[in-house]
Design brief:
Helices cover 38% and strands 25% of the residues. It has 278 residues and is of the alpha/beta class. The chain binds 3-hydroxy-5-(hydroxymethyl)-2-methylisonicotinaldehyde. 3-hydroxy-5-(hydroxymethyl)-2-methylisonicotinaldehyde binds next to strand 1 and helix 7.
Length: 278
Amino acid sequence: MNAKMLTIQDVSCYGQCSLTVALPVLSAMGIETAIIPSAILSTHTGGFTGYTFRDLTEDIPAISAHWAKEGIAFDAVYTGYIGSKKQLDYIKNIVRTNAKKDALFIVDPVMADNGKLYYGFDEEFAAEMARFLAGADVILPNLTEAAFLLKEPYVAEGYDEEYIESLLRRLSALSGGDVVLTGVSFDNSKLGVAAYSKAKDSVHYYFEERVSGSFHGTGDVYASCFSGALLRGLSLEDAADLAVDFTVRAIRETLPDREEHWYGVKFESALPYLIKRL
Ligand code: PXL
């Protein structure tokens, strides 16, 4: 039987992020994927102005209740961009009600990048997110999100392994599980991830050549590929590495057209590569 994942994040109708990335990536990986859209926006908030925003918070408990009545239960729940504290509370309830007993719970605490919170988020939400992710099997913060979760200043560069490992251990203490920290770089020519396994108390690094600049939506490309790989049975470390390789390919696909295609990455052209790797 195919494993079933539920992913909860917004639909940005245009812009290659959140559900318009997660659903195709997970489907391509052979994961039966159910969704709960937390909100519907005409575009994402990273560079567009004047977008529409329809909040779907109050639909969440009704969807959960219907699924419970139908006996629908998931092997994994993966959350991305979540708009409010109320949604976080509803989602905690979904994990209790609509997930199987040993289901994987993966949280990408989407709220910030490059040292700044995304539009609409504040430090109070970051504190709520830090509470929400308690009990997650794996969390996937970038360095900025890690700093907000731990209520400390963001360190952009010049850090060492000791700093990264201290972040990983303190993040793992918040969640009680494994941590994959994204956007790690000790040498400007390389960018990658650090994966902390709680069971092994070990840190695994994986880097690729850095492509300069920043690319919107790559956190979602990474997190969906990682979540699919973990549910397919890859180890934490192998899932973390595969998701780096896939994300880098998606970025490279975008480069020839980068000026015009500033709002996302062309992950679609990298899907055949991902399928071959599985
Ligand atoms: O990729 C993260 C993301 C998801 N959803 C919305 C966003 C962003 C980042 O800016 O604006 C609506």
